[in-house]
Amino acid sequence: RLTTSFNLNCHLSDAGTVFPGYLVVILSVLMVTLVIVVVAGNALVIMAFVVDKTLRIQSNYFFLNLAISDFLVGEFSFFFALSLPRYYFSY
Questions:
Q1: Cα-atom radius of gyration of the chain, to the nearest Å?
Q2: What is the DSSP letter of 57?
Q3: What is the pLDDT of residue 48?
Q4: Which tens digits make up the pLDDT trace of 24-50?
Q5: Domain coordinates of the chain in residue numbers?
Q6: Contacts 24+ apart (CB under 8 A), 28-35
Q7: Amino acid 24: pLDDT
């Protein structure tokens, strides 16, 4: 007979480390804050490049490319890490 029980106070990572619930909440809030800052900051850089035509010089295209790639990483891979807490909390 297979029985499963869930403990809402602690989370177990793949490495076997038990994290208290408050630590998981704090780390989740920090991760969401990081996602917001990364996405908003890079969106501002992209918008500045689109709006201000004086920024369109050859050396600034590197920064535009960097902002676009960082925006995409912030938009997609952070959310995958948040949706898989065992992956995210397994330090």
A1: 19
A2: S
A3: 96
A4: 788 888 888 988 999 999 999 999 999
A5: 10-86
A6: 28/82, 28/85, 31/78, 31/81, 31/82, 31/88, 32/82, 34/78, 35/74, 35/78, 35/79, 35/82
A7: 78
